[in-house]
Amino acid sequence: MTRTDRVSRLIAASPAAVYGALLDRAALEAWLPPDDMSGRIERWDPRPGGGFRMVLTYLDPTGSPGKTSEATDVVEVGFVDLVEPELVVQQAEFEADDPAYAGTMTMTWNLTGTGHGTEVTVTATGVPPGIGQADHEAGIASSLAHLAAYVEAAH
């Protein structure tokens, strides 16, 4: 059975503002990395069939938590579908020698306008078995909190 990780958050901004932050290179570098990481985008092509390569660096690599090196996770992300301002579908693949982190994970970002902003629901399928569900959902929640802070401060 394929595991599905799902996290939602209400963000006090329009779907267009949230969608914009999902497709802006500088914005992604600012808000996407979870609390314990920083991020740098090395390649950027924001269109269906395009994508980006992001290097995530652990702020404290004690215990060698990285998937690509002891201090980093490198992920190749492809844009599968972009429907402005309501949907972003990405396929992510980590660079890792450990087969527990191999495979392509699909991340679907659904943006639903509400009277109070945008309900953002991130659904991940095909999550590599080496990524624990609780840790993954906490990482997504952290990124969503950063996304909320980023777009809410801009509006």
Automatic annotation (TrEMBL):
Species this chain originates from: Streptomyces boluensis
InterPro entries: ASHA1/2-like_C, START-like_dom_sf
Residue ranges of every copy of the Activator of Hsp90 ATPase homologue 1/2-like C-terminal domain listed in the record: 13-152
Listed SUPFAM superfamilies: Bet v1-like
Top-rank taxon, per record: Bacteria
Name of the protein in question: ATPase
Pfam families reported in the protein's UniProt record: AHSA1 (PF08327)
Family, similarity comment: Belongs to the AHA1 family.
